[in-house]
Every structure is written in structure tokens, then in C-alpha cells.
């Protein structure tokens, strides 16, 4: 039954992911969001009557029943934002989708994720830089997931290079799984899945190709990545939009420089000139800025001894924070089942005790 609610969220129109997550946190559970009276939802700060008037949960559940059949028939997996398989990097993005759909076995929470984007009119220079970078990444002891958008040009070049060099690659698409755009890349999508990668989308199966969807797709590419690399771009285009989104998420952005008069170098040169991207010439620049070395990363854990003097309520807060690097306060409320007032006071005490850190936007993390 829980699965139908997760799918139904994708069919709720006029009630975006930010407000849906807020409503779930206040009502206490996903099921409660679908059963709570509208007049109670209106009392949630920031939502109000205008949003709840557009809220049609009954229709969403009906559509979800049909969608579930398609999901099961086509071996599509769900990643709900409170589930462990949801990309943890997206949890730090307030507008990330509540539910993701994906095919394949890629680890959506691998240690290293890099997105590579660029023009659809890639030159030999751009393709060469893309291939060289991915080849160098493939020789490192820690494998890097390569993320892109399956589009023409640099996108498909990145996917093909990752496949060639046996790196997992993830393609984010801007439509549902009943089609594949562009159709010429369907064979590469199948190979991505076959070789341990994944195709991800926030769109339900019948969602058609629509240019407006690709901005939404771009935020997933940026949000799932530790850094976004732009290889060739005109002054305007989807690659610069992705870079802008990545910067808004406080992720590192890199751009390969190009010749001054080249149309498809204007965007990269502009990003570098305006300090919106680091200049990258080789993998060494990437490793230097991100602080990567070639040793296996070890997950930092709070030692058991730190729990000895904690109250049961404090232990719940710590447990909620252990599941991701940074956690927004509304998600802590949901995971701990405590009201906002109690969570705020507990977080303040734990911060004074040096157990946790606070970040802008009421986001918290364990103090390593």
C-alpha cells in the first residue's frame, strides 16, 4: 500500500515537492498526507488555502494504480525521498522530486558522482576532452559514476566513454519510460542498464517529450553530482542552465576553456570569466578542487561511545542525521516523529554539545 502513495505523489499537480515534503513532515507520514483533511493542511505554514484547493489526492491515487502495473511489468524501481536508495545528494536540494523512477543497478549513492554536460554540436576537441577525462577517471582506484542526459553531442559522448572504460553511468531523462528520446540513443540506454548503470526519471510512464521537462531533468543531473563539468556550450543553452542550478546547490562547477571566437566555447569561457566555474584542463584540476586522492574513502561514523550520555530523544535525532550527510529540519521531524518545537530545542542542545553542525536553510549534519 505504501508504494501506491509514493507513485501518487507524481500525479499531484499544482503542489510542488517543497510543499509536499512540508505537508508530509507536518502530518507525520506519507499515508497521513493522503488522508488528512484539507482544512488541516491549510494550517501548515507556507501552504494555505490556494494550494489545498488545487490538491486532488483521489485522482492521483487512481492514476497511481495504473502506473504501478506498468512499473511492475517493466522492472522499474522506485526511490522515495525517505528511502535509503534515494540519492542522498538530492536530499540537500529542496526542490528535488519526492519520487524517482529508475531502471538498472547503479549505486545512486556511490562515493563519487560527476555530471558531464555540453553542447549538442560537439566538436572533435570537445569529444577528445570528454574521452580523455573519463579515461583518466577509469584508472583511479575509486570508481566515479558519470551522469549526463542522454542527449546528442557531449552527453552521449560521456555515456559512451563511460561504457567503453567500464565506469557506471547514469542517464537522467526528461520523460517517462514508455519512450526514449532521442530514439537513436535507445540502444545506448539499454547498454547502460546492461552494464550496471541506470536510467532515472521523475516523470511517470506516459509523460511525453516536452522541452519544458528538460529544465527539471537538468536539476536532477546537477543535484545527483558532486560536481558538474561543462564541455563546450554556446552562450545560452541547457548546459549553462545545469551549471546555474549546480551553483545554486552549492556544488562545484568546472568548464573547459575554448578559443575566443568559437561559438560553442562562449558559454564555458563566460562561466570561467564570471567565476561561476573553475577552469579545468585535466583530471588534476578536478582532484585538486574536490580534494580527491586515490585512496579508498572511509565513511565517517559517530562512535558508539558518544551515545552513552544521550537521552532517548537525542538518540533519535542523531539516528535521523546518520542517514545522510546533511538533513533539513522538516525531514528530521518526520524521521524522529517529534514536532518542530521539540526538534528545534534538541538540535540546539546537540549543537552546543558539539555533536552536530547547523548549516544555512535549517539544515543539519553530524559533527565529524
Overview in brief:
The protein has 368 residues and is α/β, with parallel strands linked by helices. It contains 16 helices and twelve strands.
Q: Top keywords for this entry?
A:
single chain; 368 residues; alpha/beta; DNA polymerase, domain 1; Rossmann fold; 3 domains; 9-stranded mixed beta sheet; 3-stranded antiparallel beta sheet
Q: What does it look like?
A:
The chain is an alpha/beta fold and 368 residues long. The chain has helices at residues 2-8, 17-27, 30-35, 38-41, 48-53, 57-73, 124-138, 154-164, 186-194, 213-223, 238-248, 266-273, 283-290, 312-322, 329-336, 340-352, and strands at residues 77-80, 99-104, 113-118, 145-148, 169-172, 198-201, 227-231, 252-255, 278-279, 327-328, 356-359, 363-366. The strands form two sheets. It has a nine-stranded mixed β-sheet, with helices on both faces. Strands 10-12-11 form a three-stranded antiparallel β-sheet. Helix 8 links the parallel strand 4 and strand 5. Helix 2 runs parallel beside helix 15. It starts with a helix and ends with a strand.
